[in-house]
Amino acid sequence: MRRLFGRCAYPRAAETSGAPRRPGTRTAASAQPARVPKLLSHHLLRGVKLVIVSNRLPVAVVLREGGAELREAVGGLATAVRSFLRATEGGRALGFSEVLWVGWSGVRAEAETAEVRSMLRDRGLVPVPLSGDEVNLFYEGFCNSTLWPLLHGFTVYTQFERKFWDAYVGVNQKFADAVASLAEPGDFVWVHDYHLMLVPAILRDTAPELAVGFFLHIPFPPAEVFQLLPPPWRSAILEGVLGADLVGFHIHEYVNNFLRAVARFLGYGAEGGVVHVGRRKVRVGFFPIGIDFDFFHAAAERPEVKAEIDELRQRLRGLKVVFSIDRLDYTKGLLNRLRAWERFLGEHPEWRGRATFVLVVVPSRTGVPQYEAMKREIEREVGRINGELGEVDWVPVVYISRFIPTEVLLALYNVADVALITPLKDGMNLVSKEYVASRRDCRGVLILSETAGAAHELLDALMVNPNDESGVADAVYKALTMDDEEQCRRMSRMQAELRQHDVVKWAVDFIQATAVAYADNKASISAEPARRLDGETLRDLLNRFTRSRRRLLLLDYDGTLMPHYPYAYQAVPDPELKQLLHTLASLPDTYVAVVSGRDRDFLESWLGDLRIFIAAEHGAYIKDPGGGWAPLFPFDVQWKDAVRKVMEEFAALVPGSYVEEKTSSVAWHFRNVEPEIGEAMANKLVDALGGMLDKSRAAVLRGKKVVEVRPAGVNKGAAARLLVERLSPDFVLIAGDDETDEDMFKAIPDAASVKVGRGETAARYTVASYKALREVLRLLAALKPPDAVDDKPG
Ligand code: GDG
Q: pLDDT of 454-482, one tens digit each?
């Protein structure tokens, strides 16, 4: 058996069919008739570029003495996108004018010569050079030692290193810069996988008019697992992905996990798979990746594959073959699989000498100690099993630890009586699909982990739990003894599924869904985005302030003038803030108003001594400098008792939620409740309140983790408008950090409005934090009194 594959001379990894062409052109190896699907060309795709972005380009650069050579890479993503491009005439059948692919060439930046770059560019491939340090910290570090284990749920293998994260941020920026430098408004950008989760948000900031789709090829774990990432990293990753118009996963479970994480860590709710991020709607859906069904289904007819099949059959002498192929990885469950095979042979000794397990493990991430140790352990186990059970003319496990040429892989798919695919966790798993598609003879049995994404489609596989050793052993027995009729029944049902949902359909569905999502967002994207308030924009603002005759500053309190504290009572103004407000209010013809959601008592007790306007309860009550409180307009709150009663019932029903009552409003807060339960109950509460309230008197508002009822027409925008009408300023500055402040930004569109912190906004400017805003206010306070400006007009 040692010579099972001995006849072939194996080229090295990234096995190939020679120099690749431009993405989308057909290659010799895959010269099957391309099956062009019925494409629903979308007008948004017409004449624009498709830019594919992935960590690796779909080629491997091989450096030789006499120069460089490019070889087509084999791997899930590269093969999938190539099949799509082949079937769509390089994207032209969809309307794209050109397809470019941005990624790392696989060689360190130092080795990426001008010759390599130009060879790549000739083929539409745009290299992003990575230095040795970046490869170590970004690729081997954050990608493979943090995100890979964490997203697969291997929490104990996950490393949390600040320097890995910093490199991840830097390299994502590099990729985004490379895309932004070649994409134009309206172009389509398809970002792939966990290496590049920050790219969509960076593009949204720097090139907002691009259509962006993001697809994750590996699992997205439950929120409790994702929570292990330090808060700034996990928020940046979620916000990063949400920069896209469409976010895709393989299966519904990952979609749910992602939406829960978004709700829990960012506080964004989702309805029907749409997350509202400021003005944008981000669609989140599942798009199970398929394979090039026709290619695999026709493979056994190809002469070179046929020859391999004949050769293998001859050498196997009627032995039944159980087969698996994986990259060396702890997620693949290789040791569990070996032990299950051993158990099967122990429980069914009659199969010794009649069946063999061909275990192909393709080297991967060589040099990483964890992987090296696992390789040694697999080798020890194979050696032990073969030593204990093997015979002179039979080995229980044929172990191959190298990359195998495609025709050999295709032959193995065709001769294997059983495919034993038992990953502990796998985003999808293409091998299981390729095995099924390859069986033109309608024979063979697939044993598949319920923990692989593919289990959601390949329902006629013998489903196993990879940790259930005896369950897997039983499945092997069942598979080896299954009659031909049942094999064919199961195979043909699975083949029908794979034929219908092939890789081209996957890519076309994804691109078309991105087009729809982008069309929806286009209007809001074209609104002018907020600009950072620094440098020139800040100088301009200070100038306008100086030249104006009458100034009004409308300032939110929590999160804007003060940081957010865990408990509301902690946000007591510091002496520096009070001094600043005092100085500003003392400038000639300058009015300061603090506009807050807090109640009158709090604001009165901490700010009442300043000569400023104060608006409490979102503007329901306004106090003039040195004067008393007056309502924004006459309103009644007779509805409060009934509303409070309903809300108290909800508070009793939902542990962790509570009711807050102010003079003009009642609110039900659910920030301490599980997001799904909180959101679902909030919907019910809104429905219940909607049915009992007179809309002309009371308004139900759905805020961040709160449902509030206020007098109709009361909001910070109305308060801002009233003050502007009363004071007639020719310069208005508005600053705020949350949803309720957006009402002010929209109510006074000519104002210099400033959003404090991240997130979509109707404001003109943004600053990073309350500290940055205070710095701006300090600059205003230090300006020469406008009366003394020499060149004051008039
Ligand atoms: C990610 C996710 C998801 C492997 N060894 C050889 C070889 N291969 C080919 C197989 C198959 C591909 O590589 C591996 O498929 P996977 O599904 O494991 O994909 P990955 O790229 O490893 O990983 C995975 C996938 O993305 C797609 O979204 O399914 O869950 O982890 O096509 O045939 N091909 C040849 N020789 C080998 O030795 N010729």
A: 999 999 999 999 999 999 999 999 999 99
Cα 78 to averaged position of ligand 1 atoms, centre (Å):
9
Distance separating alpha carbons of residues 486 and 548, to the nearest angstrom:
85
Check pLDDT > 60 for residue 21: no
Residues 6+ apart with CB under 8 A from 439: 413, 414, 491, 495
358: Cα separation from own chain's centroid: 36
Is residue 725 scored above 80 in pLDDT?
yes
| Ligand 1 atom closest to the CA of 403, numbered from 1 | 38
Residue type, 467: N
- HSE, side-chain direction, 13 A CA sphere, residue 508: 27
3-state secondary structure at position 704: coil
Q: Choose the residue to mutate in 431, 451, 457, 498 for probing ligand 1, maximizing ligand atoms within 8 Å of C-beta.
A: 431
| Residue with CA closest to ligand 1 atom 13 | 75
Strand 49-56 to strand 125-127: parallel, antiparallel, or no bridges (unpaired)?
unpaired
Contacts 24+ apart (CB under 8 A), 133-140: 133/167, 134/109, 134/167, 134/170, 134/171, 135/108, 137/163, 137/164, 137/166, 137/167, 137/168, 138/164, 138/167, 138/168, 138/170, 138/171, 138/195, 139/55, 139/104, 139/195, 140/365, 140/368
For ligand 1, whether the C-beta of 421 sits within 6 Å is no
DSSP state of 391: B
Express each pLDDT in 153-205 by its tens digit: 999 999 999 999 999 999 999 999 999 999 999 999 999 999 999 999 999 98
Centre of ligand 1 to C-alpha 540, Å, is 55
In the numeric block, which tokens belong to residue 444?
């063979």
Show which residues are catalytic: 556
- Counting from 1 in the atom list of ligand 1, the atom nearest the Cα of 452 is 30
Q: Considering all CA atoms of the chain, what is the largest pairwise distance in Å, rounded to the nearest integer?
A: 107
Ligand 1 center to residue 77 CA distance, Å? 8
What pTM value is reported for the model? 0.73
Distance (angstroms) between ligand 1 centre and the Cα of 431 equals 6
d(CA 469, CA 735): 62
End-to-end CA distance of the chain: 100
Least confident residue range of 68-82, 372-386, 551-565: 68-82
